[in-house]
Design the sequence.
């Protein structure tokens, strides 16, 4: 499934602490009063501004014409204009362990970056995500917006630096969750692209979940998100470029081969 970028503006709303706690239990996002910042030389959140410096490039390797491990149906869901794909491949349908690779497309084919270890949801993957199922949604989704508790590390994506990304408590394996949302990229599943990751708009309805992000790994399974080590998360943020129409392709290996 593809969620296309639409010209929606940022939304702000103050949400009670209880709502933010509920957001942590069912996903990764909620609305919150926020400030927006950008790295020097990067695009502002919306509109014109200084010409950005060249983005860091992923190390290049063999360049296949098609992304490895994807079947015809999954490949067909990647927009033709996309030149960056974060491919997240789960170990199994019911596994919380996965790997992530950022691919860049050039005239010669798809070039692979480093393989990063990752986590996904506690119970694995699903083709129809709903609130509370503790599974990550299989599919192809655009990556349009970022944010975090810490300042912009140098991304070109619109970045929401906000205290609304605070989180505490422990994960499924007793690991502390603090710092998990220091840096996030919103996955455009059941959300309004062009808004903060904290925006609570749910086009498919609240029952279909939401707040699915790529965020900092806390050492265990997630509620539904994909998580990467902090250094890998920062590298991803610095590498993705809106002009290259980045998407995430995510799911267990068997589902992605369809």
Sequence:
């Amino acid at each position: 499934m593809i969620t296309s970028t639409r010209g929606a503006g940022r939304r702000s709303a103050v949400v009670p602490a209880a709502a933010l706690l509920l957001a942590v239990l069912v996903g990764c996002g909620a609305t919150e009063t926020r400030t927006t910042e950008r790295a020097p030389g990067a695009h502002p959140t919306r509109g014109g501004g200084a010409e950005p410096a060249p983005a860091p490039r992923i190390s290049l390797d063999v360049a296949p014409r098609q992304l490895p491990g994807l079947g015809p149906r999954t490949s067909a869901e990647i927009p033709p204009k996309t030149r960056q794909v974060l491919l997240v491949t789960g170990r199994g349908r019911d596994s919380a362990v996965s790997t992530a690779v950022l691919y860049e497309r050039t005239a010669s084919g798809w070039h692979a970056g480093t393989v990063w270890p990752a986590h996904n949801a506690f119970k694995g993957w699903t083709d129809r995500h709903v609130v509370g199922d503790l599974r990550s949604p299989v599919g192809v989704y655009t990556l349009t917006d970022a944010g975090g508790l810490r300042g912009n590390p140098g991304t070109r994506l619109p970045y929401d630096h906000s205290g609304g990304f605070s989180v505490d408590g422990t994960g499924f394996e007793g690991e502390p969750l603090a710092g998990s949302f220091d840096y996030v990229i919103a996955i455009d599943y059941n959300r309004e692209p062009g808004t903060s990751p904290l925006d609570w708009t749910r086009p498919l309805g609240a029952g279909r979940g939401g707040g699915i992000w790529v965020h900092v790994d806390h050492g265990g399974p997630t509620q539904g998100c994909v998580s990467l080590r902090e250094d890998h998360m920062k590298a991803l943020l610095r590498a993705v470029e809106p002009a290259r129409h980045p998407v995430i392709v995510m799911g267990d290996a068997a589902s992605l081969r369809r």
